[in-house]
Every structure is written in structure tokens, then in C-alpha cells.
């Protein structure tokens, strides 16, 4: 790691505080049996909600959480109060239950999104099951390089599915492997919408985030 001087935790605090909306007006059951037009309308609503603009907001964070070791490092953190929001917690629970339901035959049990999805293993199995296709990746890899290579392959397959339908990609290999919960949630919500998952997502879910540069 670089030995560059650590930046001050008070650097431009008000410009870093934002509110990110995940679902906006989205609500109701996403059923696979919906008519084609209804599904298209629902997907369009989901895209608009996920891409909702971020508004300035006041967030209290611990100074030690804003310390950066490298000159060009950027870190996105979730305000602790947002993590306790009932709708935010419900969104996470619904997505975890959905993943576990899809992968029940694989005997995979996800308990924490950041810890269980960052290395690409679960995402690989999830996409293979949803898209009914096999990805050409190593089954198990422990090295960081191997994990990122797997993630790259998995995310490229995801992008091939989503981009033609107008989805804005709000995640990448580094953010997923870095256990960025915001990126992971954007990815999972997009997959749930695209494959019309038979789940009920909470309405008007938003979270306070702090981007430190």
C-alpha cells in the first residue's frame, strides 16, 4: 500500500453526503407469469427508480471511517442509521431469501450479501440458474486475482443480458470484490427485475451514503 500521507477526515464533508434511491416507486409482486407488456412496464419503472438522482443530505460519520491511505482512493460508506431503516433491512432480507430459494438445489445458503457474494462464486451460480446457461469459469478460486477474473466473466455475462434493455450499470469488479453493499444491491435488484423474480420488494427504499475522495 502506498505510504502517501493520510488525508484529513474533514475534507469537503458536505459535498460527499448523498442519498441514493434503490427502488423509488417500485413495489408489488414481481411474478414470472405477468403479461409481456406488464413486465416491460415494470422493468422500465425499476430502471427509473434505481437510477433516481441522489440528493444532498446530512450524515453523521466517524472521522476514522474517512481516512484514506492513497492519494486517489475513493470510498463509499453507508450511514449507520440507514442500515437500521426497516425498509432497507427488508430489501436485504428479501434479496437474501430470493437467492437462497433460487440456489436451494445447490445447497448454497447466503447469510450476508457482502461476505458471501464478493468472490463471484455465488453470483456465478445465481446467474447460471437464472439464465439457464453455464459460464466458463473455475469452480473454486482462493486468490484475489482468480476471484476478480471470475467476477469479470460473471459480470460481463450480466452486462450482456442487461445492457440491451437499457439498464445503467452501477457496479464493477472492484466494487463487488471490495464488498460495496450499494453496488451489490444495485446488481441484485437489476437481476431480480430482469428475470421478473417472484418476490415482493419494499417501496421507496433509500440509503444515505458518503463518498470520500
Summary, kept brief:
With about 210 residues, the protein is an alpha+beta fold.
Give the topology, please.
Elements: E1 17-21, E2 29-30, H1 36-50, E3 55-56, E4 75-78, H2 80-83, H3 86-102, H4 113-117, H5 121-131, H6 144-162, H7 173-177, H8 181-194, E5 199-200, E6 206-212
Explain this structure:
The chain is α+β, with helices and mostly antiparallel strands. The chain is built from eight helices and six strands. It has a domain at 86-212: Actin-binding Protein, T-fimbrin, domain 1, CATH 1.10.418. It has helices at residues 36-50, 80-83, 86-102, 113-117, 121-131, 144-162, 173-177, 181-194; strands spanning 17-21, 29-30, 55-56, 75-78, 199-200, 206-212. A four-stranded antiparallel β-sheet has the order 3-1-6-4.
Note the overall shape. Answer: globular
Report the CATH superfamily of the domain at 86-212. Answer: Calponin-like domain
SSE class? alpha+beta
Oligomer: single chain
Mean pLDDT: 75
CATH class of the domain at 86-212: Mainly Alpha
Count, helices: 8
Strand order of the largest sheet: 3-1-6-4
Organism: Mohoua ochrocephala
Domain Calponin-homology (CH): 89-196
Main location: cytoplasm
Subcellular location: Cytoplasm, Cytoskeleton
Supply the key terms.
213 residues; alpha+beta; Actin-binding Protein, T-fimbrin, domain 1; four-stranded antiparallel beta sheet; two-stranded antiparallel ribbon
Amino acid at each position: 500500500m502506498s505510504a502517501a500521507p493520510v488525508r484529513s477526515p474533514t475534507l469537503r464533508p458536505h459535498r460527499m453526503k448523498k442519498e441514493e434511491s434503490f427502488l423509488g416507486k417500485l413495489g408489488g409482486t414481481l411474478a414470472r407469469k405477468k403479461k409481456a407488456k406488464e413486465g416491460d412496464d415494470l422493468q422500465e419503472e425499476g430502471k427509473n427508480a434505481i437510477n433516481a438522482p441522489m440528493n444532498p443530505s446530512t450524515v453523521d460519520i466517524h472521522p476514522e471511517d474517512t481516512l484514506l491511505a492513497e492519494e486517489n482512493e475513493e470510498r463509499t460508506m453507508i450511514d449507520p442509521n440507514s442500515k437500521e431503516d426497516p425498509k432497507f433491512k427488508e430489501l436485504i432480507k428479501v434479496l437474501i431469501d430470493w437467492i437462497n430459494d433460487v440456489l436451494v438445489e445447490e445447497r448454497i445458503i447466503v447469510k450476508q450479501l457482502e461476505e458471501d457474494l464478493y468472490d463471484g462464486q455465488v453470483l456465478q451460480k445465481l446467474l447460471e440458474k437464472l439464465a439457464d446457461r453455464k459460464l466458463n469459469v473455475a469452480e473454486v478460486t482462493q486468490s484475489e486475482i482468480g476471484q476478480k477474473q471470475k467476477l469479470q466473466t460473471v459480470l460481463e455475462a450480466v452486462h450482456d443480458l442487461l445492457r440491451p434493455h437499457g439498464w445503467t450499470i452501477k457496479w464493477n469488479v472492484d466494487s463487488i470484490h471490495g464488498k460495496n453493499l450499494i453496488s451489490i444491491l444495485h446488481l441484485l435488484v437489476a437481476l431480480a427485475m430482469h428475470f421478473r423474480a417472484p418476490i415482493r420488494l419494499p417501496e421507496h427504499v433509500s440509503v444515505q451514503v458518503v463518498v470520500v475522495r
